Amino acid sequence: MMIYLTFREARALLRGIELINVDLGKTKNMVRVIRVNNYYLFPDGSKVERRIIEKIAEDEGTVYFIKDGEVFKAAIAGEHFYKLVPTIPPTIEINGIRMHRTKDTDPMKDTIAKVNTVNPKKGEKVLDTCMGLGYTAIESAKRGATVITIEKDPNVIELAKINPWSAELFSNPRIKVIHGDSYEVIKEFNDEEFDVIIHDPPRFSLAGELYSEEFYREMYRVLKPGGRVFHYVGNPGKRYRRKDIQRGVMERLRRVGFVGVKRSEEALGIVASKPGR
């Protein structure tokens, strides 16, 4: 049993509440944590000092977990700094930039809005080009689709393995995780292999090749006739530099042959399809 703690649970313990949730809200299950002198005793036998609980209570931006009786941050430092953020469900933050929309929404609502634009169905095959924490792949599989999801960054995969909300990525037989660069991996798929593509790349400044006409041509090739595409774009440039990133994406999608290209205001992206035979 993995035990997760955020500022919410820590503050509850400090108020004397014994029953808390320790799976980041994935379920409504509660466990009893008993205070003994200056430490808290968890169901797995872990003893956590009060001073550590106080530290967690002050940190509203980080997820913590207990492993082998020790408390760790769900964070990885290297060339970039990665961490799980205690939204419900969690999102990933990379160098201070969140990978899901959280303003006036949450990562699950954000995911459902994206998946709803193409509505994968039972028996269909989905390509999820940028896995992240895998919520898109998991939601697509829940609807009966089989999913291939690709993630380039090993640190993101590692945080997904820690995150309880991502567990189905590694246990659901309808989901296959590929560690690799979507720009290269997509070239290995067969023509007309997928019914649906959900393309949710990092921002343009970080992964411009995933917004290129060359990549869109590969998306077109691997999509079945009549297949659907959702491409998350957001609108960072339009707000700050009066540059409409979405418009450029739409023009390139049309140039490679996609039809029905239009904006999805709710999901902040573009939907399109490949002409049927």
UniProtKB/TrEMBL annotation:
InterPro entries xrefs: PABS, SAM-dependent_MTases_sf
Gene3D superfamilies noted in UniProt: Vaccinia Virus protein VP39
Domain PABS: 151-277
Pfam families (UniProt xref): Spermine_synth
UniProt superkingdom: Archaea
Keywords recorded for this protein, A-Z: Methyltransferase, Polyamine biosynthesis, Transferase
GO terms classed as biological process: methylation; polyamine biosynthetic process
Any GO molecular function: methyltransferase activity
Residues at the active site: D200
Family: Belongs to the spermidine/spermine synthase family.
Name used for this protein in its record: Methyltransferase domain-containing protein
Organism: Pyrococcus kukulkanii
